[in-house]
Amino acid sequence: MSLDSQALALAEQVSAAAATNTPVAIQGSGSKAFYGRHTGDALQALDMTAYQGIVSYEPTELVVTAAAGTPLEILDASLAEGGQYLGFEPPRFGPGATVGGTVACGLAGPSRPYTGSVRDFILGVKMINGKGEILRFGGQVIKNVAGYDISRLMAGSLGTLGIILEISLRLLPRPAVHRTLVHNAAETTAIERIAQWARYPYPLSGAVCDGERLYIRLSGSASGVAAAADAIGGDTLDATEAQTFWEDLREQRLEFFAGDAPLWRLSLPPATAPLNLPGEWLLDWGGAQRWLRSTADPYTIFDAAKAAGGHASVFRGGDRSSTVFQPLDPPLLALHQRLKSGFDPAGIFNPGRFYPDW
Amino acid sequence: MALDTDHAAVADAPPGVSLTELRDALQRGLPASYILTEAEQLRPYECDGLSAYRQIPRAVVLPDSIEQIQHVLRVCHKLRVPVVARGAGTSLSGGSLPHAEGVLLSLSKFNKIIAVDPENRCARVQPGVRNLAISEAVAPYGLYYAPDPSSQIACSIGGNVAENAGGVHCLKYGLTVHNIISVDMLTMEGEQLTLGSGGLDGPGYDLLALLNGSEGMLGVIVDITVKLLPKPVVAQVVMAAFDRVDQGGQAVADIIASGIIPGGLEMMDNGIIRAAEDFVHAGYPVEAEAILLCELDGTAAEVAEQVAQVRTVLEQAGATEIRTSRDDQERALFWAGRKAAFPAVGRISPDYYCMDGTIPRRELGKVLNQIQELSRQYGLGVVNVFHAGDGNLHPLIMYDANQPGQLEQAEALGGAILELCIQVGGTITGEHGVGVEKINQMCVQFNTPELEQFHALKAAFDEYGLLNPGKAIPTLARCAEFGAMHVHGGQLPFPELERF
């Protein structure tokens, strides 16, 4: 079945669900089923995996348009042929991870502070809203300010505003060279050094500290990387070992990520001094994304993150029927609820997945 | 130009709030001297950078604290009076054109840089701070604020966020939306919300992305944290001349295909080259049909490597002349003509009308040819500057407002160019915003359910439609009217009927 006729069938399914107030769960490969809240309610599944394929890709335009169910492996392979890649380095968290799920979850890998987030790369979207209407926003051009930026709003909305059918993403050329440098440094020293280096135009593409070692990745032209490596110093990690390290970090396969304690993600101003919370830490994104394994009371962590100017979420584990994302202040919460109703008046898309209130 | 027929459409407007009633209510929360209601006081606010549209507001308010803005919003919400926020008033799309029944909310007193945080590479600023003032203030730290719209000397950062302003360095460094960390906004009810956080993302929906480019329709921006970048150590410009415009277009594609993202990549056609050369004497080859300016920045080693690569690509693309800036002085000279392109056209034409469509780069040759065809058809000259890297085209339509009918003709030609951009898969506005100017073309770019979705989103923020009414998103009634009036292939339906 063509994408167009599949889209019409999906839109009909949504209209029918809306008419009967039947909640639906939008599903890709299920690689990120662990993420968000788990309500325990049995929802009608809306499978997106068949809705796949690269709709258009022209390397000289630096833009790809792909159907939501397209596996990242397939997309990556095509982009590699054009010498390009998805600059936000999305984690897979499982085989078959789709581009639609990647955008809906809004997750980015180690290069995020230097290249940008999922939404930074979004140029346009084709979607189905809660009334079963097929809509297009944005486009395939890099600059576009016609109408509200609904396409970027879809990033990280966990499928609660609509079904992503197709997505247009901006691309980056693959860097010619990568190099990983290792310093012995604990958190405080690492945070200071990262802040210093970030004030020079070095081609940084990763900065992570496990409490003992600071890993710095440089990506770019051979000369640019060599010059920056001379300035930064440290031991160069073997190329294969380095690639494995950054992939394991992105896919949460490092030893740090094994274990039962809830895994928290704290999003903070990068230079924030280490927070006094019980548990094990891993600093990523140059300090702007901090992983914490902790059994502390959730509200202790939510409050600490907010006090530091950031926010927190329970990424894996813990009580997933409770609040897993940073609670919103009442006026902001009310705005979220009105916005949700504006897209999905019957409240049928992924109810409860994001916040308990909608 | 005629004002929108739906310009004054405000949902549930209560009948006639008198000016006295409005002024008395405003005075309860801000000094009388901060409220302007006399005709001669209001006149300076009648237009923004798009001076073809003019409208005197009912009142102008000049608050100096967030509490005062909250008071203004609460009063206007209660009395159902429209509010139009204004920064420096440099909008090129009429984004801050006043509303006849409304209050113009000037944010000019919010001009302070609150804090610079070099450790976290960010600065907290008030919305009325000028774009360039940020880079000047953070220069001692080796940092700068990247988005650089041509009006950066004058335009304010609040307006940049509201319009998602661009500039010549967007391809590499992004638009405003990519360079804002968080924003505090006031809702129409006067409630303060923080969008984003001190980290690289915020909790909940990405309302920060949504606020960028929302043209003052969703909230009033009162506090902004911008991202700062380290200043490149070296920047060099390669200038190349071409005998044919399509060769220049192909060279742009070849540069991108070679894996280089230049800091800036600009193209000018012959009309602009001549006008700019006469004006600033940058040494441009005036016989060329197109010139390309390609800026490469980074560390010294990187730039040297990329300059060599780009020169090779340009040679292969058939450039008739290639020059590389030897120092910053020469680099500034190469840019001078491009940056002065608009005033240069101002010297050769009494008036000009700047368009802002974006197209897929591969359509460049076709679009430029069709623009020339339209130019002949409408009898008005068009010259083109092009943010070639990101496909953003600025055709400048030359006309004389003193010649009866020319303004209308320029407007019609502009509309036709925008519709051409949509046809080839582009958009009607890359960086200037829809405002009042391109509101009819929104009816061409979006269908009814899409426009309804925009209205539903707007209603979630602003139930009564009081913030900047009549801009950015057309009403369905307006589109129905425009559709009926729409000129197809130069043929008006029912040509025997009188038009107004």
Characterise this structure.
With 358 residues, chain A is of the alpha+beta class. Chain A folds into three domains: 3-173 and 339-343, Uridine Diphospho-n-acetylenolpyruvylglucosamine Reductase, domain 3 (2-Layer Sandwich), CATH 3.30.465.10; 177-250, Alpha-Beta Plaits (2-Layer Sandwich); 255-316, Alpha-Beta Plaits (2-Layer Sandwich). Chain A contains eleven helices and 17 strands. Chain A is globular and about 60 Å long. Chain B has four domains: 19-106, Uridine Diphospho-n-acetylenolpyruvylglucosamine Reductase, domain 2; 113-230, Uridine Diphospho-n-acetylenolpyruvylglucosamine Reductase, domain 3 (2-Layer Sandwich); 234-344, Alpha-Beta Plaits; 348-485, Alpha-Beta Plaits (2-Layer Sandwich), CATH 3.30.70. Chain B is built from 17 helices and 18 strands. Chain B has a seven-stranded antiparallel beta sheet, with helices on both faces. In chain B, β5 and β6 (122-125) form a beta hairpin. In chain B, α13 runs antiparallel to α14 (406-423) and α15 crosses α17 (476-485). The interface between A and B is large, with 89 and 98 residues.
List the helices and strands and how they pair.
The complex is a heterodimer of chains A (about 350) and B (about 500).
Chain A: H1 3-19, E1 24-27, E2 44-47, E3 54-58, E4 63-67, H2 72-81, E5 84-85, H3 99-105, H4 112-115, H5 118-121, E6 122-128, E7 134-138, H6 150-153, E8 163-170, E9 172-173, E10 177-184, H7 187-197, E11 204-209, E12 213-220, H8 222-232, E13 235-236, H9 239-250, E14 263-267, E15 280-284, E16 289-293, H10 298-307, E17 311-316, H11 330-343
Parallel strand pairs in A: 1-2
Antiparallel strand pairs in A: 3-4, 4-8, 5-9, 6-7, 6-8, 10-12, 10-13, 11-12, 14-16, 14-17, 15-16
Chain B: H1 19-27, E1 35-36, H2 39-42, E2 59-61, H3 66-79, E3 83-86, E4 103-106, E5 113-117, E6 122-125, H4 131-138, E7 143-144, H5 157-163, H6 170-173, E8 180-186, E9 192-196, H7 207-211, E10 220-227, E11 229-230, E12 234-242, H8 245-257, E13 264-269, H9 270-280, E14 290-298, H10 300-316, E15 321-324, H11 328-339, H12 341-348, E16 351-354, H13 364-378, E17 382-387, E18 392-399, H14 406-423, H15 439-445, H16 448-461, H17 476-485
Parallel strand pairs in B: 2-4, 3-4
Antiparallel strand pairs in B: 1-2, 5-6, 6-10, 7-11, 8-9, 8-10, 12-14, 12-15, 13-14, 13-17, 16-18, 17-18
Helix pairs in contact in B: 9-11, 9-12, 13-14, 14-15, 15-17
